[in-house]
Amino acid sequence: MELTADEIDALKELINIGVGNAAGMLNEMLQFPIQLQIPEVDLLSPLELQSELKKRFGIELLSVVQLGFNGSFSGSAQLMFPTESAVNLVSVLTGEDKASPDLDSLKISTLTEVGNMLINGVMGSIGNVLDQPLDYEVPYYSEQEIEELLSKEQSLEYGTVLLAPAHFSIEELQIQGDILLFFDVGSFNVLLEAISAVS
């Protein structure tokens, strides 16, 4: 499937609204300016996706919060941090020292909560703009490498994934991360129709 320039622009604008809202929430929590890159929208095979994520993150272990969504269209959203950034974020939010043994036990609940809030901010904005209510699954947290991350998500043999990565960074706190949206291609046409209906 090829996207037209207009479709790509409309998708970018839509996702940007959602990611901008999520960045605003994070900014309120941390009180530090957040640099946010406008997401590029790519239509990739799962193997191409794996290669793209390796380029972005290398082989580092990632802290990931994942939230599935469904409704008129379905897919999953993931908030990904390099492990060191995840530790920095949890330390700032909880006030625990990075070397504290308690930090590890706080990490899962804190990042799951942050991920849930940010991803709901992104997907809630998209659902509201398109007037398409979405249902959400329970978010879950994991630490894994990219190969593990994708083998659970999609078969690498076939299929297409719409990847919309939004990279954000907070220089003062040495935190960086990405919000990734995966749309099931079965529902992708519905998403495009919904966008054209409101634009």
Q: How far from one another are the termini?
A: 21 Å
The shape is globular
Number of domains: 1
CATH topology, by name, is: Chemotaxis protein chec
Can you tell me the CATH architecture?
3-Layer(aba) Sandwich
CATH H-level name... which superfamily?
CheC-like
Per DSSP E runs of 2 or more residues, the count of β-strands stands at: 9
Number of helices: 6
Give the uncertain stretches in residue-range form: 154-158
- What is the CATH C level class, in words? Alpha Beta
The gyration radius over C-alpha positions equals 16 Å
SSE ordering: HEEHEEHHEEHEEEH
Biggest sheet: strands, sense, closure?
9 strands, antiparallel
Structural class: alpha+beta
| Mean model confidence by pLDDT | 82
Helix content: 40-55%
Estimated share of beta-strand residues: 15-25%
Can you characterise this structure?
This protein has 199 residues and is α+β, with helices and mostly antiparallel strands. α1 crosses α4 (102-130) and α3 packs across α4. It starts with a helix and ends with a helix. Strands 1, 2, 3, 4, 5, 6, 7, 8 and 9 form a nine-stranded antiparallel beta sheet that branches. The protein has helices at 5-30, 46-57, 83-94, 102-130, 146-153, 188-198, and strands spanning 35-36, 42-44, 62-71, 75-82, 134-136, 140-144, 161-163, 166-170, 175-184. The chain contains six helices and nine strands, in the order αββαββααββαβββα. It has a single domain (5-198), classed as CheC-like (Chemotaxis protein chec, 3-Layer(aba) Sandwich). The longest helix is centred in the middle third of the chain and has 29 residues, at 102-130. Mean pLDDT is 82; it is low at 154-158.
